[in-house]
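2024-03-11 09:14:02 INFO worker-7 job=invfold-0412 stage=load source=structure_tokens
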């Protein structure tokens, strides 16, 4: 045995097979390595363009890895370099998932948002787990088959989540396949945590027991992939980790006095989404619904800090009453919180359609194939933004306007300008949203048809075209008579037509369907309970 093992590695530490690597195999591995380097660079560029808080971390990590590969290019075998690049990608994604903002606005690659990247790595880890468990001969066949079925269940749930564009963390909080089950029996949790954990444990046992020589490389490669996938899944189970507001994570910001000329630095924050998300995929001819929210971010963060302090004070009073802490301990805890919160001035501005513009960045040129139309609220409108007050505006692009939009991705921003005297004056720019125009499917599935009709219904409802909105929602309900979003939209349309009894009936049906389909949800979607109560008060029911 020892004699055989002496030939497992060459004098430089590599295997004979790799040491003799020449010709097509060497060129092939080199091409794969270069493609993976390109993928890492693409991830850095796209993450920078998305303005992720992780962009500098990712750039430093990838730069270090590329420099090391450049230095060791002649010493490393191409197969080792290709495998190392794969591991660099999955480990980078796994680490980024645990950093602030890593779950919602983290690593972006190949035009795909963070949720897609996280789901793909998790699916890859589950595939490696399935491959590994099926090769373990020491495990009883019945156990192997059971774990493999659960693994396929998990892969199907993640894939379905990709198709439905479910946020990654939501897959571990009740939005995975099957929705009727508690989250710990749904596919995403079972496949990515239970199956991968069991397989990884068996993999470690197998490696300690009988893996030797060159097999150790593949064993370690599989182990790292599965551990990275498990780490990402646990990050999703924990939930998205967003950065704390400045007023909670450190001393309160020092804002200029109301009467000082530096006050112009305070400006409204603009949050832009299209069709309810920051990254959408639509076919030509789909309507676009831009929702732009203006708020006083500094005042909102100051108000949040004040609420947090008051909540902490109340909790400490309860703990004092129950004897859990003393008055002195409570005072010491409270003193660690910012005591003098900044007084942030209100922002006054005038809302008019001409104050807003949209620009799309594509191919290095700024161009916009359509002109979004503001549909509400009534303008001109004088708004005062404080810690609680914000303004939400809707801009629409009709389906016929997008019909001639070329296939490709548009990165769109909104800009607001205000020059009214006696108010905040200046220019504010929103975040960027990505609209990926794709060719329509040859034969759309039932789910795709439902999404299309629901989007049309939302568009016509926003445009107050109740007749076409009813046509769209009835088309969706013909495909699924219990669609919660369709019934909720029907209620909104009837409420807009002042048919309050019909609206109450639609809202009650939507609420019943929500409770039947999603029994483990914390609360029903679309504000259904409030809508039912509002219509009952209106009708006296």
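2024-03-11 09:14:09 INFO worker-7 stage=emit residues=541
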């Amino acid at each position: 045995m020892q004699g055989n093992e002496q030939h497992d590695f060459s004098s430089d530490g590599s295997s004979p097979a790799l040491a003799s690597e020449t010709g097509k195999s060497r060129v092939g591995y080199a091409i794969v390595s270069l493609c993976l380097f390109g993928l890492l660079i693409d991830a850095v560029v796209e993450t920078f363009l998305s303005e992720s808080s992780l962009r500098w971390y990712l750039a430093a990590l990838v730069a270090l890895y590329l420099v090391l590969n450049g230095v060791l290019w002649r010493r490393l075998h191409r197969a080792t370099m290709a495998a190392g690049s794969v591991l660099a990608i999955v480990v980078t994604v796994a680490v980024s998932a645990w950093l602030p903002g890593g779950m919602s606005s983290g690593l972006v690659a190949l035009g795909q948002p963070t949720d897609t990247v996280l789901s793909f790595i998790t699916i890859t880890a589950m595939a490696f787990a399935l491959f590994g468990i099926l090769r373990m001969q020491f495990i009883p066949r019945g156990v192997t088959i059971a774990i493999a079925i659960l693994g396929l269940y998990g892969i199907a749930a993640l894939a379905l989540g990709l198709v439905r564009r479910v946020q990654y963390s939501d897959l571990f909080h009740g939005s995975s396949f099957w929705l009727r089950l508690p989250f710990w029996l749904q596919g995403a949790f079972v496949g990515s945590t239970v199956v991968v954990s069991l397989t990884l444990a068996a993999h470690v046992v197998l490696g300690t027991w009988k893996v030797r020589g060159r097999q150790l490389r593949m064993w370690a490669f599989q182990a790292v992939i599965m551990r990275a996938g498990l780490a990402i899944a646990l990050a999703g189970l924990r939930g998205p980790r967003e950065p704390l507001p400045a007023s909670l994570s450190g001393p309160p910001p020092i804002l200029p006095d109301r009467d000082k000329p530096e006050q112009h630095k305070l400006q409204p924050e603009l949050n832009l989404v299209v069709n309810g998300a920051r990254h959408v995929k639509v076919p030509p001819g789909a309507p676009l619904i831009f929702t732009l929210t203006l708020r006083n971010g500094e005042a909102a963060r100051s108000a949040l800090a004040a609420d947090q302090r008051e909540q902490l004070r109340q909790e400490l009073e309860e703990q004092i009453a129950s004897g859990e802490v003393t008055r002195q301990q409570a005072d010491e805890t409270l003193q660690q919180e910012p005591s003098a919160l900044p007084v942030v001035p209100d922002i006054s501005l005038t809302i008019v359609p001409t104050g807003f513009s949209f620009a799309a960045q594509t191919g290095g040129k700024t161009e916009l194939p359509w002109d979004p139309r503001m549909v509400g609220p009534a303008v001109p409108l004088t708004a005062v933004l404080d810690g609680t007050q914000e303004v939400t505006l809707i801009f629409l692009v009709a389906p016929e306007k997008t019909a001639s939009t070329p296939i490709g991705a548009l990165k769109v921003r909104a800009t607001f300008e205000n020059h009214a005297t006696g108010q905040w004056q200046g220019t504010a720019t929103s975040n960027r949203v990505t609209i990926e125009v794709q060719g329509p499917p040859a034969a759309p599935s039932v789910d795709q048809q439902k999404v299309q009709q629901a989007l049309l219904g939302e568009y016509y409802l926003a445009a107050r075209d109740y007749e076409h909105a009813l046509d769209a929602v009835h088309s969706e309900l013909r495909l699924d008579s219990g669609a919660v979003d369709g019934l909720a939209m029907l209620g909104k349309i009837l409420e807009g037509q002042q048919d309050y009894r019909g609206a109450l009936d639609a809202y009650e049906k939507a609420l019943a369907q929500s409770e039947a389909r999603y029994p483990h949800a914390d609360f029903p979607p679309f504000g259904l309970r409030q809508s039912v109560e509002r219509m009952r008060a209106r009708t006296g029911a």
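2024-03-11 09:14:09 INFO worker-7 stage=report msg="The CA atoms of residues 23 and 107 lie 36 Å apart."
2024-03-11 09:14:10 INFO worker-7 job finished
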